[in-house]
Amino acid sequence: MSASTNSTHSGTYQGFEDILEFFNLSRKQCPKGVRIKRNRGTIQLDITTDPETGGRKQRGCNCQFTSEGIRKAVDKAWLVHKSLDGQFQSVSEWLDWYKATILDENKTPLENDLITYRQVFKEMEDDYFNGVHKNTKRKRSRDISSDQSSFKRCFLTVFNKVTDWDVYVSWDGIKEALYSPLQDGNSPVGHKDFKNRYYRLRQVAERAGCKKALEK
Fold this sequence. Notes:
Helices cover 51% and strands 9% of the residues. With 216 residues, it is mostly helical. Strands 1-2-3 form a three-stranded antiparallel beta sheet. Helix 8 packs antiparallel against helix 9 (192-215). The longest helix has 24 residues, at 192-215.
């Protein structure tokens, strides 16, 4: 969607009137139900049916009233639009996603966590096989094929979305893995696998943050 927004105007926006013109044109690129709205020097998302209130609500989106901020706000409007299509089962889950993806609240602490994806993945793998089967309470084992299959399906398929396991965990890396295309090239948002991706990658992010906190 951002490509169409970027092509709306070919000039360079410098003055307020130019920015306002670009803003008004860009509003037409927003999806139904989620519009961008100017709030002095920032931009808000005007959500027609907000999951928390059930009605219209304006939410911040961490975008300034600049040409670049407007482009980002339109992209985020589309992300919110897709997120409302039943991919989250609870309001709290959606709010966590909104804070992380739209408000970028987790960006700063994650960027400097000196722990690699490989380290986090190893910790999660060890925790999984040191645990018990959720139904039978049987101790899991790497020697049991069903446990191996479950780990691959629930964890490894998500881990493999990260292209380089030996770099430090970063917020940009988390988002790249979360939104990497499906095998057919389509966006994962709204797909049944997206929820598992989001849940597992949030665990990765939390472990990176906890690691840093414990070392202080």
